[in-house]
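Exercise: predict the fold of this chain.
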Amino acid sequence: MKIFTPASLALKDAVATPFWTGNTQASDHLPALTTDATCDLAIVGGGLTGLWAAIEAKIENPSLDVVILEAQQIAFGASGRNGGFFSESLTHGLSHGLSLWPKEIHTLLRLGRENVKEIFEFLGNEKINADQNFCGKSVMALRPHHVAELEASFKQLREYGEKVEFLDSAETRKDIDSPTYLASLRIHDGSGILDPAKLAWGLRASALARGVRIHEMTQAMGLVSNGAGMTVRTQLANLHASKVILATNAFRPLLRRMRNMAIPVFDHVLVTEQLSHAQLESIGWQQNQGVTDAGNQFHYYRRTPDNRILWGGYDAIYYKGSNRNISQEQFAPSHQLLSEHFFETFPQLEGLNFTHKWAGMIDTTSRFTPVIGRAYGGRVAYAFGYTGLGVTSSRFGARVALDFIANRESELTQLTLVKRKPVPFPPEPIRALLVSKTRSALAREDIDGKRGPWLGLLDRMGVGFNS
């Protein structure tokens, strides 16, 4: 006889669809590309990078003929499947940026802050309501060694001008009540939460209003040189363009050189039903900030505007051969594990049900920061590999890509982050073995706080597992 636990019962009626795209009605679908066409700039991928690239290109030159090719619909991929967190960081956190680019850290911090400031000024001017809220975040210590790590982070963040508090266990539980919390770092500046699908759809409307042509349900199958320009081959037609920007995120890239720079991992998410007033009172969380654990395998969670809790992360899975099969988005053991961890964190919410369960692909690089480059003599540029932090840094990637196809040397193109590419992933079967070995080492560090020889070696190689 199968025994149902509170964690499994909470999942029994959850629908297998992202909350963001299922909660709000999208605009009408746009037509596929069915006949050959030409343009000045073709953008492959209608996610946040592609949308920002199109908008920024039209702001710079309103007469430019820009076309976006999207394989599904806008907000289908990571743009509508993420947790809805945004951050000023371009370096996957301050400590990681300091470990990789200490001489440029002040520039990177400034550029990250300017990027987010300009994004939300644009949203205000365009009257795009994405439920954006600059509420900061809390990082929770769940093990004794996390407390020391957060104390060190507190000092580092204050040194670089961040508004931050270190809270002991009692202070943390007064803020958000969980028996698992030993301490927390409350970061007030530079981050917040929003509705990612509303953001993508708002940018879609802004791009269309500027004359950008968007073709949905149009999958790019190949990219070939065409004299002085490029041709993007799709299922039904060809698009001839002077320049191309590849913004395919975790999906299969069209350039061979991109294939070893990032790998796809499936990240799982749950959303609860609406909490009652009594349930909300039992956990506090009055400041509504985003929350994450301090570990390597971490959860991220937040409240939604209608008083649900989005709960995701921890069990990110890589499938051998960089398998991107969409059927892997519904992996019952990962959703079950997330549900168990949810009730361990908030036992006072036992009996609450989940209404949505899904997964999405994250494109992770070996150093956890994006890879941006160019090919075909500057006729093609690419930006991808945001490793879960692309909600706002995608605009940064788009702007660098636009500089590249304009053959324009700028402050952005001269950054070491841009000029030096991350260490590529090895081919299979070595890739899967090393991913598994690294994941096991990270899990061990979460338990005892010790890096171990394998993670130490990766640190010395400049690989991004020390963030």
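Check your answer against the key: The chain is about 35% helix and 20% strand.
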